[in-house]
Automatic annotation (TrEMBL):
Domain Major facilitator superfamily (MFS) profile: 1-336
GO molecular function terms listed in the Swiss-Prot or TrEMBL record: transmembrane transporter activity
Chief location of this protein within or outside the cell: membrane
Cell compartment(s), UniProt: Cell membrane
Protein name per Swiss-Prot or TrEMBL: Major facilitator superfamily (MFS) profile domain-containing protein
Signal peptide, first to last residue: none
Keyword match 4Fe-4S: no
Amino acid sequence: MLTLALMGLTTGLIALLPGYARLGAISPVLLVLLRFLQGIALGGEWAGALLLTAEQNSETAMGMGATWSQLGPGLGTVLSAGVIWGVTRSMDVASFQDWGWRLPLFLSLLLLAAGWVVRSSLSEPPQFAERKARGEVLANPVGAVLRHHGRSLLIAASTRIGPDVLYALLTVFSLSYVTQTGELTRSAALMAVFAGSAWGVIVTLLAGRFSNCWGAKRIFLVGTVCALPAAFVFFWCAASHQALLLGFGICLGLSVHAIMYSVQGALISQQFPVEVRYSGSSIAYTCGSLAGGGAFAPLIMVTLFRATHLELSISLYVVVALLVSGAGAMLARGTR
């Protein structure tokens, strides 16, 4: 519950945060700090939701069980892209930049309230509840992870980097890139992200289902290999200045991202024993996000493009990130 409360508090503060004109340089500093706290809250809540769904199933069916919690980002992106598209269509650019961008943040608080109601009625995952009943719960699981499971932590965190960087390219950097370098509008880019995310939800379910037969590790590696050309395809499609081709490039990229992300939860959680699984998964998720995505990946992409004026530099950045995740998955234990 603490993680949901932290997410709601930071989201509300971002929505109310005064701009640079009123606070000066402290405004972007506060924004980065609040986004960092959001990431911590997300990591904690993600692990709880993951284990709650995954541990209701047997070891062989854990892949599909863990997939249900992985639907959140895809569905969230569909919803947020739709809301932002509606807001941008209802006002001019100046109004959106002045105050309109705050509206989606305020609306998201309604979802957090609904999540609070649902979360308050849920019990602990069965495997953890059994250990708790036997008095086998560690007093300091975070310390145990850092002292005894460093290798597992690095491997699990590395699997976050590639998918996060690819996702940042397709859903964040793409919005500014296509409007500033081409003839497409932000609305066209948002609709491409909307369609790609919706299709990604379907792919997530399919990949999760196959993971019960083939294993999360194999599915993740297949997705990683398929994702290697995704950035090159995206930039080729964006260079056409055609909305349909842009939609194809983003849909293709988000599809291969969904293959990796669908089984990422199972892959990460099974790197840790039950007594530290929640803490280990949370730390790995958060650290991997900080290293790969979050606020840093789009910033790195902008910096690379300004320095080189070459889309190739961004594509190679994505490829390197994916190779890091692929190497981590190959070293991961279990899950075939």
